[in-house]
Amino acid sequence: MTRDFLSGPIPTDVISEMLELARRAPSAGNSQGTEFVVLEGERVAELWDLTLPAEKRDVFAWPGLLRAPVVVVPVANTERYLARYSESDKAQTDLGKDLNNWAVPYWYVDCAFATQNLLLLATNRGLGALFFGFFERTQAVSEFLGLPEGVYPLGGVALGWQGSGDRPSQSAKLPRRHQVVHWNRWGKYLQS
Ligand SMILES: Cc1cc2nc3c(=O)[nH]c(=O)nc-3n(C[C@H](O)[C@H](O)[C@H](O)COP(=O)(O)O)c2cc1C
To answer: 54 pLDDT band (50/70/90 cuts)?
Structure first.
């Protein structure tokens, strides 16, 4: 993740191409419910005004994050899942009737797959990227973006050319865990 950007723009065709590739992630029943809202210029500034107000900004540890020329907001369109799972080959699942019937919220899973694609594509292009959460501002951001009912933002992906002032977050300094693979049942780690 990159948290210090140069203000130089990203060509529009580069953004469009990355999003065209990012969307080719797998999706439940091929529902293709992931969509993107691309913010640039004044709209990026307005997003930061909403999510990082002046009193917090004065002590914000990564002022260079706010120079990112583009923020992409991947959103999950749950209507696509209800419609797809109401079709004849899926109707018997009852998943098209109510989002509460889903054991796993695949609209967020699919949205995260596509978002990871975007992060990888950005890295491959030599761009920096940061996925960040909206936390308690999620509803306010939804209104800011004009999202209709049933469409939910995953978070933001700041994109731009990396500046020279970047440094890892506290989280990135944590050591990588080794024992995360369980063989045959929980608790049986492969010896490392
Ligand atoms: C779901 C998710 C939410 C995250 N939210 C934030 C965030 O709100 N702010 C931030 O600075 N970094 C955020 N990160 C970035 C993580 O802190 C970062 O990926 C982790 O520390 C590892 O660092 P690296 O990706 O640079 O290797 C988030 C990452 C993920 C996957």
So the answer is: confident
